[in-house]
Structures are given as C-alpha cells and as structure tokens.
Amino acid sequence: MGLLLGKITVETPKYEVLHTCPDYEIRSYSPCVVAEVTYPAGHDRDAGFKILADYIGALGPPQNRRIEKIPMTAPVITAGEKIAMTAPVLTAGGKGGGEVTMRFVLPSSEYARADEAPAPLDERVAVRDEAAGKYAVARFSGVATEAAVAERVERLRMSLERDGRRVVGEYVLARYNPPWTLPPLRTNEVMLPVED
C-alpha cells in the first residue's frame, strides 16, 4: 500500500543540504556506485528500466555474474536528452535526437566501489563510480511528462540565475516512485549541477 501512496521505503542517495529557499535546495551529494544503460532518444522514455531491473534482479533472476539480487533504491535517474524549449535547457526524457542514460544508484551499504558490484551479463549495462557533486534541486509531484519537466527545469534555471548561482552542466530527472503510485503522491526532482 505504501508504494501506491508514494511512501519511499528504499535507500536513497546520501546528501547534505547546503542551502534552502522556497524555489530549490542546494545539495552536496556523496560519491556512489551506479548501474547505467544508454539508449537512443526517441525510444520509450523508460526503455532502460527493464535492462537495469534485470541486472539487479527486480523482475526475476538477477542478470549478473554472481547471480546476486541487488536491493532496489530510489530514485531512478535519467539524463542526456535535449528537450525543445525557448531557452537552452538540456537533458532528461522525451523525444528528440541524441541519447538518454538511465541510472540506478546501487545500495551504499553493499557497494562502496564499482569493482565490488557484480558484473552485468548484459553488455549494455555499465557499473561505475559516480563522483560527489553539488546540485540545485527542485521537487515536484505528479507525472514527470516532458512538458512538466521542461517547465520545472526552466523555472529552476531562472531562480538560480536570479540568485547569482552558476549552472555547470545538464540537468537530470530523478523519479522516486513506481508508475502505479497515485500521480499526486509521486516524488520527482529536477537537478542542475551548480558551481562550488
């Protein structure tokens, strides 16, 4: 019932809140290990989910060399696709050219480094260390449609510009709930990397 109502009961990435204002938070994220898959933009927005879920064993036997089930974490992160807008806002879900990368953050209690995680059987899955990073984050509920994401990213970018903060990369979309969670109870975040 918690999944339907949006309760997040799985591990989430570790971070420290550096600044809070009504429009966003600035967070410093700890290093972590991610499993990721990259696929052409324009495919199903969640095309990588099944591949990554197979790797960790969320939908059946784990598709990794140790046949080791890996606990699911949240959020599911997508990055890399351009969204058509009037401003130069880049990445995360939708249609267009380029590629999309979907990531699962692996449990930090089990994998401190990428070489500790089981090797994937599917060559499309890469397991790697993700460096620490500083992000401006804006949270929203509902379905993370292309239009909703584009609007939130533009609003976040404008708020950061207003406050004199410099964006240093492309945004990512973090979705914390499964698709059967009631839309008003879903947790989503758009994240823009910012300068130290």
Number of strands: 9
Largest sheet: 9 strands, antiparallel
Number of H- or I-type helical stretches: 2
Name the shape in a single word: globular
- Enumerate the spans where pLDDT stays under 50 for 5 or more consecutive residues: 83-95
CATH class: Alpha Beta
Strand content: 25-35%
Taken together, the total number of domains comes to 1
Output mean pLDDT.
Answer: 89
Fold topology:
Blueprint: E1 15-20, E2 25-29, E3 32-40, H1 47-56, E4 76-81, E5 98-105, E6 126-130, E7 133-140, H2 146-162, E8 172-175, E9 188-193
Antiparallel strand pairs: 1-2, 2-7, 3-5, 3-6, 4-5, 4-8, 7-9, 8-9
Describe the structure.
With 196 residues, the chain is α+β, with helices and mostly antiparallel strands. It has a single domain (15-193), classed as Regulatory factor, effector binding domain (Multidrug-efflux Transporter 1 Regulator Bmrr, Chain A, Alpha-Beta Barrel). 14% of the residues lie in helices and 29% in strands. The chain has helices spanning 47-56, 146-162, and strands at residues 15-20, 25-29, 32-40, 76-81, 98-105, 126-130, 133-140, 172-175, 188-193. Strands 1-2-7-9-8-4-5-3-6 form a 9-stranded antiparallel beta sheet, covered by helices on one side.
Short description:
With about 200 residues, this protein is an alpha+beta fold. It has helices at about 45-55, 145-160; strands spanning about 15-20, 25-30, 30-40, 75-80, 100-105, 125-130, 135-140, 170-175, 190-195. This is SOUL heme-binding protein.
Features:
196 residues; alpha+beta; Multidrug-efflux Transporter 1 Regulator Bmrr, Chain A; 9-stranded antiparallel β-sheet; 2 helices; 14% helix; SOUL heme-binding protein; SOUL_heme-bd
